[in-house]
Design goal:
Layout (H helix, E strand, L loop, with lengths): L2 E3 L3 H15 L7 E5 L3 H10 L11 H20 L7 E8 L4 E8 L5 E9 L2 E2 L22 H17 L6 E10 L4 E9 L5 E7 L6 H5 L12 H12 L4 E7 L9 E10 L3 E10 L3 E10 L8 E9 L2 E11 L6 E13 L3 E15 L4 E16 L2 E18 L9 E11 L9 E13 L4 E13 L42 E14 L2 E13 L7 E12 L2 E10 L8 E6 L4
Parallel strand pairs: 2-4, 5-8, 9-11
Antiparallel strand pairs: 1-7, 3-4, 5-6, 7-8, 10-11, 12-13, 13-14, 14-15, 15-16, 16-17, 17-18, 18-19, 19-20, 20-21, 21-22, 22-23, 23-24, 24-25, 25-26, 26-27
Helix pairs in contact: 1-2, 1-4, 2-3
Length: about 575
């Protein structure tokens, strides 16, 4: 006996059954017991059995009819999984509480593919250039016939060809021939794609941004071959730009005469202005407050303005930024930046005014490249120095961050490379060249346990450090450096013992973090670091324990750290608020 399936109803029934078996609860009724079936076979059979719908108080004639009809459903449920030689015995009884139907099933040997003939436009699938996600495995000779998986594979073929612009696709042959006696199945699936469609007219909503800027979000042009992936990229770019409240892209109706696909992008304006207010506390800075303002769309050219105010006991600043897209609005922006900063610590005091130009470009999804030229005027006092400095700084920066979250990050990393310098022949009071690299990594051992490592390396090419302002010197110590020591309290000292900062810096930290209950965790850490000028670093090390609360506004950390090179000194308390990366 042969079975020939062309769009087999058993196949669709199997798909529906397997889907419902995983999501729908089984209502209370007659109990059905299977013996001899594995988990998947039983789930498919149970979902199809009409006897299971019988109520415990159903009349015997109705239960007998459902029990009789179940024979066909049991056979079909196993055929859908490739078992065509099913044998079973069954019994029906009425117990004290309800009806009981018992099936002892022998599925037999499964039917396997002995021939698989899949072509696309007459070519084998492997030569057609049509790639499928690994989720949809291609039927292979020797594999068990599974009608549900076969239908998923066919649907994936149609979807993939449609995604590539073949909208007139059809199956010229689509059948599975089953020979149960020999446990063989032959599959014939011949796909004809037809002519590939091209992009037609591409249009955007008017009145938000000028068309020349919107065109910068496109990697496609009219008459290019259609590709659904490009439509997804366009949607993600527009939706992530911050300019729009909603983005909708239509690719219909198809023009069957010209074989083109129109693209109509409907946009609504996003909220133009946004204000932010924040407050917090950190041991290094004391109480702190933040105000922020951003105008995301000053005009139809996509220009933006941002201003921030930060106030604390030791560090206060006011900054402004005006930026605009240059060539590609997705990756390339230019900006003017400026601001004033006052810093007053136990080590130094400084007032700084800056103004500059910066160009930023996304090198990839996770890397940002910045180039800058910045004018800086600084009035500073440190040790026995009380001077002013004027620098025109040129610099380049590479930054990458993965895994940033408001809550507890289980994995991620942050890397920053910075190279900058100044020359007395280009308007600066002095010349120097400085390199700095910082990194932070988070990785988890289990869902509750993780390690956090942190490192910093800095080097300055400058003979006389006294010529450099405080903002260009290196210090260590503090909440984000070597815990157990005051903020910026570690570094080279002058003849009076006052810390004056160093030309170079090395820092390293490792922290073990373990969730204990709810949103609380405990941590143990070791920090070490040195700021130095003569290539003979003297490291200061702090160890300690910490408590973390992952609050709705972000992690709050309380650390108790002890300086190892000063054993008589008490523990220092460090309190910080902010994301892990």
């Amino acid at each position: 006996m042969k079975y020939r399936y062309i769009q087999s109803p058993v196949t669709w029934l199997a798909l529906l059954t397997l889907a419902l078996a995983g999501v729908l609860p089984i209502s209370a009724g007659a109990e059905v017991v299977f013996k001899g079936l594995d988990e998947i076979q039983e789930a498919n059979a149970r979902a199809l059995m009409p006897i299971a719908s019988a109520d415990c108080d159903s009349n015997s004639w109705r239960v007998d009819r459902l029990f009789r009809d179940a024979d066909k459903k049991l056979t079909e449920s196993l055929q859908a999984l490739g078992y065509y030689n099913v044998e079973f015995t069954k019994t029906l009884s009425q117990g004290e509480d309800c009806w009981l139907a018992e099936y002892a099933v022998t599925p037999g040997e499964p039917v396997r593919y002995s021939a698989v003939d899949i072509t696309v436009d007459g070519l084998p699938l492997a030569q057609s250039g049509l790639a499928l996600p690994q989720l949809f495995a291609k039927p292979e000779v020797g594999a068990i016939l599974h009608h549900g998986q076969y239908e998923k594979f066919k649907a994936a073929l149609l979807q993939q060809t449609s995604n590539q612009g073949f909208f007139d696709v059809r199956f010229s042959r689509n059948e599975v021939i089953v020979e149960p006696d020999s446990f063989d199945a032959s599959l014939y699936l011949h796909l004809e794609r037809g002519e590939r469609y091209r992009f037609g007219k591409i249009s955007f909503s008017e009145g938000i941004l000028r068309d020349s800027l919107l065109q910068g979000y496109l990697d496609i042009a009219e008459d290019d071959y259609y590709d659904a992936a490009e439509i997804n990229k366009l949607y993600e770019a527009l939706n992530g730009s911050g300019f729009f409240g909603s983005v909708s892209i239509r690719t219909d109706p198809l023009d069957e005469k010209t074989h083109t696909v129109p693209v109509s992008v409907s946009l609504t304006p996003g909220k133009r202005r946004n204000y932010s207010v924040g407050a917090g506390f950190a041991t290094d800075t004391g109480p702190q407050g933040r105000l922020g303002y951003i105008n995301r769309r000053r005009n139809d050219k996509g220009h933006q303005f941002e201003a921030r105010l930060f106030v604390s006991d030791t560090n206060s600043s006011a900054t402004g930024l005006y930026r605009w897209p240059v060539q590609d609005p997705r990756t390339d922006w230019a900006s003017f930046v400026g601001g004033v900063q006052n810093q007053d610590t136990d080590t130094s005091e400084s007032d700084t005014f800056t103004f500059g130009y910066m160009r930023t470009r996304s090198l990839s999804k996770n890397w940002l490249w910045s180039r800058l030229v910045n004018y800086s005027y600084e009035d500073f006092a440190i040790g026995d120095q009380d001077e002013t400095s004027q620098l025109v700084i040129f610099g380049v920066n590479f930054e990458s961050a993965i895994g940033r979250e408001i809550g507890r990050s289980k994995a991620g990393r942050q890397i920053n490379f910075d190279l900058r310098g100044a020359s007395d022949s280009l308007g600066s009071d002095t010349s120097f060249l400085q390199f700095k690299a910082t990194t932070k990594w988070i990785w988890s051992i289990t869902d509750k346990t993780r390690f956090i490592t942190r490192g910093k390396l800095g080097a300055t090419m400058k003979e006389d450090l006294a010529d450099l302002p405080v903002s260009v010197r290196f210090f260590t110590g503090g909440d984000q450096s070597v815990r157990g020591y005051d903020f910026d309290s570690l570094g080279p000292v002058d003849e009076n013992g006052a810390v004056i900062g160093g030309s170079h810096v090395l820092e390293a930290s490792i922290e073990f973090d373990r969730m204990v209950v709810g949103n609380w965790s405990i941590a143990a850490f070791v920090d070490t670091g040195s700021a130095f000028s003569d290539f003979s670093p003297e490291f200061s090390t702090g160890v300690g324990l910490g408590i973390r609360w992952y609050s709705p506004i972000g992690p709050i950390r309380i650390d108790f750290a002890h300086p190892l090179d000063d054993p008589d000194r008490d523990f220092r308390l460090h309190l910080t608020l902010g994301p892990d990366l």
